[in-house]
User: Fold this.
Amino acid sequence: MSFPEYIYDQTKNKRRIVVAGSHGKTTTTAIIMHVLKKSGRKFDYMVGSTIDGYETMVGLSDDSDVAVLEGDEYLTSPIDRRPKFHLYNPDIAIINELHGTI
Assistant:
């Protein structure tokens, strides 16, 4: 099981908010996490780099009903060539700035 598959498996019964795009994924994910934290809402999360106020880049629990995931475009694994965000199956998708040719 790849890491993205594991994250999906651990959050499949939760409302998944997935942030994707060329730039600003971590910042947008951090803003959503900040709002949820300040509102007292429990949530799971996975971000691509460290964020002030969080000791780890991944937080999973049994007692939350929402997960905020940074859905980057990097390959899932050397044998699974899909972008990671394809595996998260978002309930809410946020797509930031896009660059490149589609």
